[in-house]
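@channel sequence for tomorrow's demo:
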Amino acid sequence: MAVWPAVFALNGDESMTGTSLSTSRILLVIGGGIAAYKALELIRRLRERGARTRVVMTSAAKQFITPLSAAALSGDKVYDDLFSLTDEAEMGHIELSREADLVVVAPATADLLARMANGLADDLATTALLATDKKTLVAPAMNLRMWLHPATQRNVAALRQDGVLFVGPDDGEMACGEYGPGRMAEPLAVVAAIEAALAKSTSLALPAGVGRVSGERASGPLAGRHVLVTSGPTHEPIDPVRFIGNRSSGLQGHAIAQAAADAGARVTLVSGPVCIPDPKGVEAVHVEDARAMLAAVQAASPADIFIGAAAVGDWRVAHFGAQKIKKGAAGPPTLALVENPDILATISRKSPARPTLVVGFAAETEHVIDNARDKLRRKRCDLIVANSVAEGTGTFGGSANAVHLVTAAAVESWPEMSKQEVAERLIERLVAILKDKT
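structure tokens (generated this afternoon):
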């Protein structure tokens, strides 16, 4: 196994959540463009901050800078041949892509972005990018018309959707004499983007239960734990055609289930009727109404963590119409309502089967925190995630959320962020709480 080069940081240790730049390992993929010379400066800047950098060069990159230059600055050999018997013996391309804490592509040419977006693996660089289990940060560099071309923009959108991080490109004068967007971000800006990426977890987990050797345990902070999540609305039938429902899309609950699976948990998702796909790697149970949801939750129990993100209907009609209710001369029918079972209170009730952590959601239109505190007390759960669904917030059906974490001891308010980010931060917080409890 090849050993990462030793370096000495000039700026001391940095304390941050995730991996510190001064102790990080960076796999730098250098693409073929005139901006490749900036990659040499980037290597130097990373190394003086303590980061250990290993370099992969495309064949085109070697037309602009030499492997010898990159090797001298990084203190390690440069990898460029997918079929090198020596390199594969010392450091296989799979291991090469996974030993790093972050993969950086700089410069990322239009060709390299296109191959990444389409999952091509025809050389060492693209094979490593496809095989990595770490996040990737790219610094695009190309002519402005190449950057603005619809094909490139489609590729960039696809890569962003896949979770690839971007820094730049900047506006400026090109080597070709044109001016506009397409210049590779300056090395210090790339360093700052690398630090920001390392501040969070850079690992890309496989879906729960996928890709492990038989008998091997899942990895992650929730490995060996069972997380039970409810999501979406419930539809309480009035007759075979109509129902009482709400506007919940299930986006937040499904994102939480995915984040829990990514953290290594065995996840059961009990979902009401939604129009989004099941998260990967979770066991999904689909239900329609509140009583079916409670039955599914109880059947999936016990669990270490219960997260009630579903917008469960409070009431149902007392008498379900076996046939469609017709209009009549007597006017609209009177619908008598009865309360649905309280899933959150039922699961939170003190018993040997109670989950270690019970988390509820409170979607409010007014007095959000006061109502959440009241719900926390009444339901006897450990934490309430409260948010506003008042008109104009766009929470129901939207991609963003602004939540308050309410416990008996404190209220923590988070700024608006994507529902995926809310899910990831919530799971991180629950991991910490669970650790304290056990």
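heads up for whoever presents: The chain has two domains: 21-198, 226-323+334-437.
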